[in-house]
Amino acid sequence: MFAVAIFGSFLLYLVIGAAVGRKVKDKSDYYVAGRAAPTFLVAGTLVASFLSTVSFMGELGFSYDGYPVVMLLLTAFNISGYVLGVMLFGRYLRRSSALTVPEYFGKRFNSPGLQALAGVMVVVGIGLYLVAVTQGLVLVVGQLVDLPSWVILVIVWASYTIFTFLSGSQGVLVNDTIMFVVFTVAAILGMGWIIGASGGPVTAMQKMAELTSKPDGIAWHGLTGPDNYIGTPAQAVIYAVTFGIVWCTVVAVSPWQSSRFLMAKNEHVAIRSALFATAALAVTYLFLTFGGFSINLFNDGIDPSEIAFIWAGQNVLPSLLGVIAVTGIVAAGLSSAASFLSLIGFSAANDVMPYLTGRRVRTPEFAAATVSSRPSAGSPASSGTNTGVATAAGGPADDTGDSADDDKRGLQIARWTMVVAGLVVLTITWVAPPAVLTIGYFAATLFAASWGPIAFWSVRSTKLSARAAAVGMIAGFVVVAFFESLSEFAGLELPDLLNPTILGFVASIGGTLLGNIGTQPSKLGNQFREKLMEIPLEDRDPQKYRRTRVWVIGTVVVLFLCGAAMLLLYAIPYASTLS
């Protein structure tokens, strides 16, 4: 039954890809879904590209091991990155009309070289993350299907590669939203059933507090002591806060999150989708963390802990719910894998290859091209009204500069580049030992350190040069990669406040300041930034502001209810066991 459900989801995946792929006409469709996506689709892809096997296996396993509240505290910080990200970076990114985030950096600093550098970082960093997600998918399917691991790997890889090749961002958008519904239902119903089977929220919490095999597992600091992952309660707080801030930055600027705003129909859709994602993840993680630890009440010896949810789906949940739960994990992995592969292919084709081959898709003056000149469906520009801004050269605004033939050629290049990138990922996954959470966290934090300072700086400052941005990106990337490698392979132990990501963040800021010495910012780049500061006409509608205000209030209400649930269903029952 599990095998039928899983391979059925693979087949559905390919059918969606083939159907949506027929509607892809140009690079705008393929890269950014025609910039016409509504709130629910953008929110669905935001959550789906965030939740993957890293969440349903690695982070749920971390909760199972005895750190549900630590994980929840970390999550409280990282989901704040959605609102901070869209307000401080994402909405300006959307106004740039770039096809990729590296293209935004290239436009902002009028530097094709910087665009190529950022593109290489996307290929390497997200490539590693895709390896982690693929490993997780193979592990999930391998628990349920009696096939050699290499066969499962090829099937999984072929599924998301063919899908992404056919449909691009349009397919990812639709499929991510479907998968978002599936795995959210799986998380809430699956974990809810486990807690209910343990006697209900209050009784389950009391039982978890009395669990002798993992004492203090449900405490705010989790398991502590020299033999555990976290040594002291103070270290638990430092871990949650530092990694929470790091992941807040990842959510705010990482290409697999911020690029989703490029697909939004308008700026209000981008903001509403960020609010939706914040509320959805707050609710989902309440179930994943406490539900993950409650699996200990049925089996406290699952090894490795990454398969705790799978074990529960097979041994605790009713058959139908178990199938939904496991299918939800697979759905989370497949949706993230497709998103990551698409970003790798897009950056390789749009940002890196043109620079390496000397063929510029954009003219040298591309930084002064129209901001938001690709109108969304139904905007005045889409009906023939000229809302563009002339380029610095004085000609008509044109943010592509491509002929129809070039556009088709670029579409073909993007697709086949994606296949090549996929083959590289397949090879690395084949030979690399499984380490879902470790590789996933390592890859994600590369972007927090290397892109975080530059992304926010690029919006707020007029004094940065392209060289400063490049040095800052390289410094952050290299420092994180160097110290993470030493920690993982050479046994280097750093103090909690000096983890590699914090060091990389500081290195990025220092590198940017040093790189800016003796240089001048690009005039075209700053002209481009000035245009980013202008709110598009279509987003000045008072009715849109009123609707967005309703979304803000709704999100606040959901977060308040989550806080109330923590008080009534966790804090009070747990405190009663201590008295």
Can you walk me through this structure?
With 579 residues, this protein is mostly helical. It has 22 helices and no strands. The protein has helices at 2-21, 27-32, 39-50, 53-64, 68-78, 80-95, 101-108, 112-144, 149-197, 201-209, 233-253, 255-258, 267-294, 308-315, 319-357, 404-431, 436-450, 452-460, 466-489, 500-515, 523-532, 542-578. The longest helix is centred in the N-terminal third of the chain and has 49 residues, at 149-197.
Q: How many whole angstroms does the radius of gyration measure?
A: 23 Å
The run of helices and strands is HHHHHHHHHHHHHHHHHHHHHH
Strand percentage:
under 5%
| DSSP strand tally | 0
Alpha-beta content class? mainly alpha
Spatial gap, N to C terminus: 47 Å
Summarize the structure.
The protein is an all-alpha fold and 579 residues long. The chain has helices at 2-21, 27-32, 39-50, 53-64, 68-78, 80-95, 101-108, 112-144, 149-197, 201-209, 233-253, 255-258, 267-294, 308-315, 319-357, 404-431, 436-450, 452-460, 466-489, 500-515, 523-532, 542-578. The chain has 22 helices and no strands.
Keywords:
579 residues; mainly alpha
Topology readout:
Blueprint: H1 2-21, H2 27-32, H3 39-50, H4 53-64, H5 68-78, H6 80-95, H7 101-108, H8 112-144, H9 149-197, H10 201-209, H11 233-253, H12 255-258, H13 267-294, H14 308-315, H15 319-357, H16 404-431, H17 436-450, H18 452-460, H19 466-489, H20 500-515, H21 523-532, H22 542-578
